[in-house]
Design brief:
mainly alpha, 0% strand
Length: 124
């Protein structure tokens, strides 16, 4: 068997990984607006200890759980800013679980290289 052909076991493992990530993303997406969404809460919903969850997220994504949640929040906020005319930065921040628009703006700039206000001006 050449190295590019996956064995049935490899295919099953990658399907299990994909299904796990789909579950993780569904939990995060459904609760993204909640500023009280925590890593322990997500781990509990996946029936995992925090340590197991931390290791699995890091292995599957390359991010720590907190980084992964932050990236998910910022990506959704970017979508909202692009899609909804008239949305304010405060509304976008709050809709993805950030209660402080200034902190949200700082993170947005660190991740996307521009402030949300600049992104808003350039995306409409």
């Amino acid at each position: 068997m050449n190295s590019s052909t996956k064995s049935p076991d490899d295919q099953k493992i990658s399907e299990l990984k994909r299904n796990w990530l789909v579950k993780l993303n569904a939990i995060i997406s459904s609760q993204l607006h909640d500023p009280n969404l925590t890593i322990p809460k997500i781990a509990e919903e996946l029936y995992m200890s925090e340590r197991q969850f931390y290791r699995r997220v890091k292995r599957e994504t390359g991010y720590t759980p907190n980084q992964y949640l932050q990236v998910a929040r910022l990506a959704r906020a970017k979508e909202l800013l692009r899609a909804r005319k008239g949305i304010t930065i405060k509304e976008a921040a709050m809709s993805v679980g950030y209660s402080r628009p200034d902190y949200f703006s700082k993170l947005f700039e660190e991740y996307f290289g521009m402030r949300p206000a600049a992104y808003l001006r350039n995306s409409h």
